[in-house]
């Protein structure tokens, strides 16, 4: 089992940057595939980015490709989301998620994840 805690959210102007962190506690973090999802008010939770257990494979939603970068540090039990060129439409609560997997493919479907953090708010002003 793994517990996840997000941090790094906040208020930023359009065009600015934020770096989200997801700290994991529990055992064997390196055996979990990880993902970032977000949910805006009145909208469904949507995929943002994902990374395999080793970090060798990553994937992004089209809406953030080229602006966001997902990474992980298994030695520190942490995952990150560097967000650049932020837009007002990026405003949402951002969640990190984990699923036990040593596969070579990242996962885009939120239903495939077993563990979730409490979320961190990101607000981008225009």
Folded structure, characterized:
This protein is mainly beta and 126 residues long. The protein is 0% helix and 52% strand. It has no helices and eleven strands. The protein has strands spanning 2-7, 10-13, 18-26, 32-39, 46-51, 58-60, 68-73, 78-83, 92-100, 115-116, 120-125. The model has no long low-confidence stretch (mean pLDDT 96).
Termini, distance in Å?
40 Å
Could you report the average pLDDT, rounded to the nearest whole number?
96
- Give a quick account of the main beta sheet: strands, pairing sense, barrel closure: 7 strands, mixed
User: What coarse outline follows from CA principal-axis ratios?
Assistant: globular
């Amino acid at each position: 089992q793994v517990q996840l805690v997000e941090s790094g959210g906040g208020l930023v102007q359009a065009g600015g940057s934020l770096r989200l962190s997801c700290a994991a506690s529990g055992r064997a973090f390196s055996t979990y595939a990880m993902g970032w999802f977000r949910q805006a008010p009145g909208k469904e939770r949507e995929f943002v980015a994902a990374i395999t257990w080793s970090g060798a494979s990553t994937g992004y939603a089209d809406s953030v490709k080229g602006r966001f970068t997902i990474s992980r540090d298994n030695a520190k039990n942490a995952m990150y989301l560097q967000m650049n060129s932020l837009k007002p439409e990026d405003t949402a609560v951002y969640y990190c998620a984990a699923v036990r997997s040593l596969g070579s493919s990242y996962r885009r479907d939120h239903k495939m994840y077993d563990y979730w953090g409490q979320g961190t708010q990101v607000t981008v002003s225009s």
